Amino acid sequence: MPRASSSTWKIEVDDTSSGHKQTVTGFGAAVTDATVSVFSALSDSQKSALLDDLFTTTSNDGVAFSLLRHTIGPSDLSGELYSYNNNTDSSLAKFDLTPAGTSMVSWISKFKSANPAIKLLGSLWSPPGWMKANGVMTGKTADNNLNPTYVDEFAQYFVKYIKAFDSGGASVDAITIQNEPLNSNAGYPTMYISADQSASLIQENIGPALKSADLSTEIWAYDHNTDQPSYPQTVLDGAGSYVDTVAWHCYATNVDWSILTQFHQKNPKVTQYMTECWTSPTNSWYNTIDFIMGPMQNWAAGVMAWTMATDTNEGPHLPGGCSTCRGLVTVDTSAGTYSKTLDYYFMGQFSRYVPRGAINLNTTGGADYGGGSKFEATSFLNSDGSRIVVLQNNFANSVDVTVKFNSGETWTGPVYQQSLTTWQLPPPGTSTESSSAAESGATKKSGVATT
């Protein structure tokens, strides 16, 4: 680790047009049944404060989330199994959001009222059991897949769901047709869908069904780990008339976010997102930083954490579901109060200071020595010409950092040990003060936020 004990570090940012990369959509988290149930236990005053903290900059700690993912029906973070159409019904005449789905619509509509710019992704864990070959929503079996008899009903299930959410004020901007399509688990709702089948379902059934219903909801491919990039490529190749976006998760062994850069090089017009990575008290303290920083350095337009909120026991969850997935917010359902975890603030270092429409800039000079020993940075250009630099220092000592922009400016300042720091810098040439982003003294009218 030749530079780990050094007191200085240099980062270079290309803020000229040649350094422009992807445009940012936003940051946020997953809304699960657990999220909805624990939020519903809050007092009225706490609910109001929560909406400010999550979706606006009204409160001092507000993180202004603008990108959300919700579960279409149950997931492992649910208190029970259910679907929006429990009984065999080829006409889907008995479609019903159920109390759980209705509560989710109600909460998401509140979120969208707090921040109308929210982009909402819906992801399905399993269709109703009667649509599947095994007849149930769970099952780690060879027949845990869609019954081909019901491909049209499967497509109409999405149409019904989108319309029901829309009518409740929770408009759905995008869907993935199956969460983790290569994960077949007996403990909670899952379904196996091959890449070829996914492409066929989107191209032949789901895409035409949405179009026929005059729905503009986007369809995103994959929604699974980075170790199988051939899967979303197959979907794009087979259903490109309906799909131009890919969703990735973080659970591959030795996750390598450079896969997204490789995928971009092959598919430069395709938008990419990191749609799921868990926050947990069992993770390293910097885990959340890594799953934001890594994708943003590699062409992701946005990042979402799993999950937004749980109770003090990391639930509710199904018996086979995740028992250590802690929300960004922890709710004490007995007291009707909530608290924010460290991960909430890490997400906020990006979501509050990097607005939608910001352009990611080519940023070099970071280093990862393995075992969590690293110094990393990513930078953004805002529409008003101001710039954001987010700096991750995992070392046990503070580091004096110099950030050099290709436009000609150089900024310096400390980044404290084991911290995530966000520098807000004005447009080039708008100030004549010293080029220091240090927290004390001067500033060149910069803002500094550290977690």
From TrEMBL:
Residues 430-451 have a biased composition (Low complexity). One of its GO terms (biological process) is glucosylceramide catabolic process. The keyword Acetylation does not apply. Residues 373-421 form the Glycosyl hydrolase family 30 beta sandwich domain. It comes from the Eukaryota. This is Glycoside hydrolase family 30 protein. PANTHER family: GLUCOSYLCERAMIDASE, LYSOSOMAL ACID GLUCOSYLCERAMIDASE. Residues 423-451 are annotated as: Disordered. Residues 24-354 form the Glycosyl hydrolase family 30 TIM-barrel domain. Belongs to the glycosyl hydrolase 30 family. The keyword RNA-binding does not apply. GO terms for molecular function: glucosylceramidase activity. Pfam families: Glyco_hydro_30, Glyco_hydro_30C. InterPro entries: GH, GH30_C, Glyco_hydro_30, Glyco_hydro_30_TIM-barrel, Glyco_hydro_b. Keywords: Glycosidase, Hydrolase, Signal. GO terms for cellular component: membrane.
